[in-house]
């Protein structure tokens, strides 16, 4: 068995198409997930993934960042490769919240998925418009993405400025009773600072990490590969950075639910996030290399938790290892 | 704006039978160099062999964990349950794939994307350049099995006619040219002059794959004559199956995904030659 | 040939033990390096490396961070592994500047090496004491490490605070005429901010990146692997992050010499840094996996530059690609 | 404080001959399971075979680019130009190494570290536990070739006597015990009681490698009796050849490097049992 579980989808003993009774649920901000593994925003499209597996089998699905109006995103090429990583600069292309409410969300709910609706914005007003429309939708949780490195206005700047983030949260919090998850960026000196700002201003949970700022050049031309020049790094390479972010945030904020993200490509790595203090995880780039990765990881983790009843009991009760 | 309607009919078919096969490991049955830094790789995969349509592609994955991203290649030929791709050695991924030998294994996902639309009875003119040839070989192979249509190939090579053998295996009407001799538009003009655009009363439909400047020139040529043209595009990809929006191309309908909205687009969609 | 050059030391065609005339020098802050490849601080010890190759063959050697008195560093275990990366938490163990001046430095100069003396400190005073002692040493350049994530006081905090960094530089600059290279951390929101502070307060060059904050846990115990808990991530995984740091700094500060560091394990990756705007590079973690990596990379790069006369000419003249 | 004086005499030897061999690829000549999750791997490497001393180690590297760090293993036996290591399957690295077969290749760097000091004529008592046995096999092999010394082995196993065959191949006086039966200090006490600490007038010198608690108990036992003890330590490593200071152990002389100041330290250096 290789350290890189994605390249060995066939070697492992789990048949994801076999019927499975989930044994180890988790609870995130009061919402029960049937298992601790969700998909990460931007690497899951219902229309694409439903051919590969039953999306209701996942703990949750975090959908693509959703803006008040359709966004066309950045020019292509939008992606490059790093050692054990992917770089992306989608620029939050999405068909807008109205389309989301008419099409994606009802289809996902009809399919039985637990939906974390990821919210994107260029300014406070954008976020408010989307949250207003999602407030009485069927979405189970809202994930406020203040951490995208690939848009010029807003996006990441809110996530790196605790004052701006607090003020945004003060506006969003009164708008909905749905659990608000704030998604944070690792591109800061100390992630516990925005984490604390978010929590003190009404976040019910945090998710981390979004992508790291990165870049590749083509040595055949000497020029950047991605049209946007820089992009966001994700995939196995970022694992230790995501683990440190979760661990340090857990230490600083013992009670806030945390969804751990970054570099997860196996049940073992998901488990490592749980030991670092996460209540649940989301799987991003691994789904690019292997469409069924999120479900495979959920199955692997479910089995690993069998031998860890203390951890499993804590998760089911909405508590964490640390 | 991306369309979210499933347009991928092979997937729909597969779904009817259960789920679509995930990434899996297949055995290489043949590997050969066709020219300097051009390889043909054949692997055994009954599902892909029985479902792949011309201009659909497969994602191949290297064994090197530094290179996790898919390497997409058009299906070039299907024989029984064996599938071939033809590719140029460009960077480290294709360098590594080029080292595979019969008996080795490789990970694959596919078939992916929307292939050429071959529903009409027509004289399909396959216009290809360089490594755009593989999907056209597949198209020629497919058209040869259609009762009402014929295929004419018009291929440009940089310097060496590496795929000639495979193209001509499936079509009687094949022309090719190297950069030194001219380009595919020269050949199209010759076809027009000699009255060979229509064959047995079948109207021409262009299927093209190759470098962007070539495809733009071909689209302009076709537009001027009102000839339909389907163009197979390339873009750097993240997933290849429609989940990441990393592979867009600008169309008159907005930024569409090359992987599932394409790779085949009409010249009207691309707004080329209008 | 694999993307991972380190695992293929034998596959490539370069015999590092063959005599070689260096073809492509570079100039960093007025100092000519015979080739653009140096070793990164903390992954080079003369006593260890001299058995493997002639250290005078390298562009430069950056020596282990040097403090006013001997430091014992952190407890063991000090290291863990990430996907395509290493985590370290040495905590700047070193025998102090006096030992450096008596032992390491004279031996390195006698061996013909171009020496970049890396300076460590817990507070401004520490840095000043070391720079005072190195000011009229035989060291060719001084590299001020304000970016170590593994010490509790000073170190990284100076590198993340442009005001503190400016004030430190105001103290160090008058102490020496030697070129001062300031080594920056990627653990900030915008690396061009400390970069600008350093340059405006007297830095002759910048080097980047130091390691990223990361962590691993052992899923057999659920506990952190490194005694210090968190460590610094380096190695191939960090390449895109280092490239982005250099590119963005080059764009913000067109004239400052930059030494690119992070994830270099092949001549091609060194070249990518030069295209991003670096004048030279340093090789760190790759030397852990392959002792001769820095020299192999220098040789690979020297050959790659043959086909790039414009870039090579710029480097030789102390200019950069961008 | 780290010593910067070269103490690695094999390296000095190698240097006289040119440079020390860098990381290089060698062929596996034999691979076998000795017990559940315990493997013995043999590879051909004339340089290591002719230079390795007992308790020196080699860095092995996996073929998986996710795992770049060295996996250090003590040399367990040398036969001609072949070198063996015996290792437990612990994590993903050793899992991958355990899959290697004769004919495969592996990357190696070595020999590394300072071995046991065998300069004195003595009854070397080899006290090992679990996966600390391999360097002791090597020591037994070496001592058998020394004119003035003899070896006595005292080995503790968790449950299975997996290395018994290799230990007893090189020494006539060998005892072993499993966890269920007792521990190595019990065996040492028996040796003392039966008057077998001295052999042919040779004084005992303890060479030990194994779990930390075992080595501490052995050091305390030896200290009480004024018997010299050399203990081979383990630590997570970055480079294995002295360049990164990632592998320290606390000694009375400060934090020393396990890789080049050790892995062998005396009980006095470690301050154990004083
Ligand atoms: C739908 C489709 C069909 C294709 N069919 C063929 C074919 O039949 N024959 C053929 O030779 N080539 C084909 N290509 C191009 C082929 O995918 C690239 O040449 C190949 O991925 C390069 O990989 P590399 O590792 O050698 O290059 P590198 O530059 O080292 O690759 C780095 C990354 O960029 C991507 N990339 C680089 N160039 C391209 C490109 N032109 N298109 C898409 N991704 C790229 C790689 O997949 C990889 O993720 C096709 C591309 C697409 C999108
Ligand atoms: C000088 C020395 C000699 C050794 N000799 C032997 C031997 O003869 N037989 C044997 O079975 N084992 C020996 N070990 C331990 C062996 O190196 C580890 O069991 C092995 O590296 C584990 O690798 P892994 O990938 O399976 O474990 P993982 O835990 O997945 O490895 C992750 C990282 O931690 C390191 N690591 C994990 N455990 C240890 C450890 N105990 N010591 C050092 N590094 C570790 C690995 O090298 C790797 O870099 C020795 C260690 C040292 C330092
Ligand atoms: C192609 C792509 C698109 C992404 N789009 C979004 C997005 O719209 N909103 C968001 O919050 N995060 C987005 N992300 C970040 C991921 O959700 C995740 O935080 C990050 O990739 C780290 O996880 P990973 O290493 O598992 O990929 C995107 C990531 C990728 C690779
Ligand atoms: C074991 C180790 C020790 C290091 N010690 C220092 C140090 O003392 N001073 C310093 O400026 N950087 C130190 N670094 C950082 C490296 O010099 C380099 O900036 C970083 O590792 C990124 O480069 P790489 O990816 O090539 O390793 C150390 C890195 C490692 C791996
Ligand atoms: S490559 Fe992912 S959507 Fe096209
Ligand atoms: S492992 Fe690098 S100094 Fe010991």
UniProtKB/TrEMBL annotation, chains A, C:
The residues the record assigns to binding FMN are 41, 64-65, 118, 145, 183, 209, 235, 262-263
> According to the record, how does the cofactor bind?
Binds 1 FMN per subunit.
How is this protein named in the record? Dihydroorotate dehydrogenase
A molecular function GO annotation: dihydroorotate dehydrogenase activity
Q: What coarse category fits the chief subcellular location reported for this protein?
A: cytoplasm
| EC number(s) reported in the record | 1.3.-.-
Q: PANTHER family under this entry? A: DIHYDROOROTATE DEHYDROGENASE (FUMARATE), DIHYDROOROTATE DEHYDROGENASE (QUINONE), MITOCHONDRIAL-RELATED
Cellular component, GO annotation: cytoplasm
In terms of InterPro entries, this protein maps to: Aldolase_TIM, DHO_dehydrogenase, DHOD_1B, Dihydroorotate_DH_1, Dihydroorotate_DH_1_2, Dihydroorotate_DH_cat, Dihydroorotate_DH_CS, Dihydroorotate_DH_I
Principal EC category? oxidoreductase
The primary gene name is pyrD
Q: Which residues form a coiled coil?
A: none
| Residues the record lists as binding substrate | 64, 88-92, 145, 210-211
A single Gene Ontology biological process assigned to it is:
'de novo' pyrimidine nucleobase biosynthetic process
Dihydroorotate dehydrogenase catalytic domain mapped to chain residues: 26-305
Q: Which cofactor does it need?
A: FMN
**Residue ranges, annotated region (Disordered):** 69-89
TrEMBL record, chains B, D:
Is Transport included in the keywords of this UniProt record?
yes
Residues at which [2Fe-2S] cluster binds: 239, 244, 247, 259
Recite the UniProt cofactor note for this protein: Binds 1 FAD per subunit. Binds 1 [2Fe-2S] cluster per subunit.
InterPro entries xref list: Cyt_c3_hydrogenase_gsu, Dihydroorotate_DH_ele_sf, Dihydroorotate_DH_Fe-S-bd, FAD-bd_FR_type, FNR_nucleotide-bd, PyrK_electron_transfer, Riboflavin_synthase-like_b-brl
Supply the Pfam families for this chain.
DHODB_Fe-S_bind (PF10418)
Enumerate the Gene3D superfamilies for this protein: Dihydroorotate dehydrogenase, electron transfer subunit (2.10.240.10), Nucleotide-binding domain of ferredoxin-NADP reductase (FNR) module (3.40.50.80), Translation factors (2.40.30.10)
Needed cofactors: FAD; [2Fe-2S] cluster
GO MF assignments? 2 iron, 2 sulfur cluster binding; flavin adenine dinucleotide binding; metal ion binding; oxidoreductase activity
Q: Name one GO biological process term.
A: pyrimidine nucleotide biosynthetic process
Where do the annotations place FAD binding? 93-94
Residue span(s) of domain FAD-binding FR-type: 21-118
* Keyword terms, alphabetized: 2Fe-2S, Electron transport, FAD, Flavoprotein, Iron, Iron-sulfur, Metal-binding, Transport
Record family assignment: Belongs to the PyrK family.
Annotated protein name in UniProt: Dihydroorotate dehydrogenase electron transfer subunit
């Amino acid at each position: 068995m290789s350290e890189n579980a994605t390249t060995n989808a066939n070697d492992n003993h789990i048949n994801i198409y076999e019927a499975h009774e989930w044994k180890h649920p988790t609870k995130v901000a009061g919402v029960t997930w049937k298992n601790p593994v969700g998909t990460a925003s931007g690497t899951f499209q219902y229309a694409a993934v439903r051919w590969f597996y039953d999306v209701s089998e996942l703990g949750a699905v975090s959908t693509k960042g959703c803006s008040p109006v359709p966004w066309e995103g950045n020019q292509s090429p939008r992606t490059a490769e790093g050692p054990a990583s992917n770089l992306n600069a989608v620029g939050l292309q999405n068909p807008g919240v109205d389309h989301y409410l008419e099409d994606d969300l009802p289809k996902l709910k009809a399919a039985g998925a637990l939906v974390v609706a990821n919210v994107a914005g260029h300014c406070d007003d954008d976020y408010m418009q989307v949250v207003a429309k999602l407030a009485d939708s069927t979405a189970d949780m809202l994930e406020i993405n203040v951490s995208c490195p690939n848009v010029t206005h807003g996006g990441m700047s809110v996530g790196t400025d605790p004052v701006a983030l607090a003020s945004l949260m003060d506006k969003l919090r009164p708008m909905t009773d749905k659990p608000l998850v704030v998604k944070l960026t690792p591109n800061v000196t100390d992630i516990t600072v925005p984490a604390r700002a978010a929590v003190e201003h009404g976040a019910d949970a945090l998710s981390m990490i979004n992508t790291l700022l990165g870049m590749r050049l083509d040595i055949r031309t000497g020029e950047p590969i991605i049209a946007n020049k820089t992009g966001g790094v994700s995939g196995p390479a970022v694992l230790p950075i995501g683990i440190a972010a979760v661990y340090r945030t857990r230490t600083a904020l013992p009670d806030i639910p945390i969804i751990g993200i970054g570099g997860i490509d196996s049940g073992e790595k998901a488990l490592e996030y749980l030991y670092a203090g996460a209540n649940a995880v989301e799987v991003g780039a691994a789904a690019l290399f292997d469409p069924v990765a999120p479900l495979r990881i959920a199955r692997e983790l479910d089995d690993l938790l069998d031998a860890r009843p203390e951890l499993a009991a804590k998760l089911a009760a909405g508590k964490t290892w640390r | 704006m991306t369309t979210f309607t499933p347009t991928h009919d092979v997937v729909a078919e597969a779904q009817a039978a259960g789920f679509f096969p995930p990434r899996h490991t297949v055995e290489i049955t043949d590997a050969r160099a066709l020219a300097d830094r051009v390889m043909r790789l054949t692997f055994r995969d009954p599902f892909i062999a029985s479902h792949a349509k011309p201009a659909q592609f497969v994602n191949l994955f290297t064994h090197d964990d530094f290179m996790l991203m898919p390497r997409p290649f058009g299906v070039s030929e299907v024989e029984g349950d064996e599938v071939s791709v033809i590719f140029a050695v460009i960077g480290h991924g294709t360098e590594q794939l080029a080292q595979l030998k019969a008996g080795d294994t490789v990970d694959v996902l596919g078939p992916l994307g929307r292939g050429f639309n071959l529903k009409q009875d027509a004289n399909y003119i396959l216009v290809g350049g360089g490594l755009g040839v593989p999907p056209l070989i597949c198209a020629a192979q497919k058209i040869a099995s259609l009762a009402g249509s014929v295929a004419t190939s018009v291929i440009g090579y940089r310097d060496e006619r590496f795929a000639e053998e495979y193209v001509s295996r499936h079509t009687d009407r094949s022309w090719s040219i190297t950069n030194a001799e001219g380009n595919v538009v020269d050949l199209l003009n010759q076809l027009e002059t000699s009255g060979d655009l229509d064959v047995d009363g079948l109207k021409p439909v262009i299927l093209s794959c190759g470098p962007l400047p070539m495809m733009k020139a071909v689209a302009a040529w076709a537009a001027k004559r009102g000839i339909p043209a389907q163009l197979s595009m390339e873009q750097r990809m993240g997933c290849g199956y429609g989940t990441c929006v990393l592979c867009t191309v600008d169309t008159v309908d907005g930024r569409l995904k090359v992987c599932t909205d394409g790779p085949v687009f009409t010249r009207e969609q691309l707004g080329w030659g209008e």
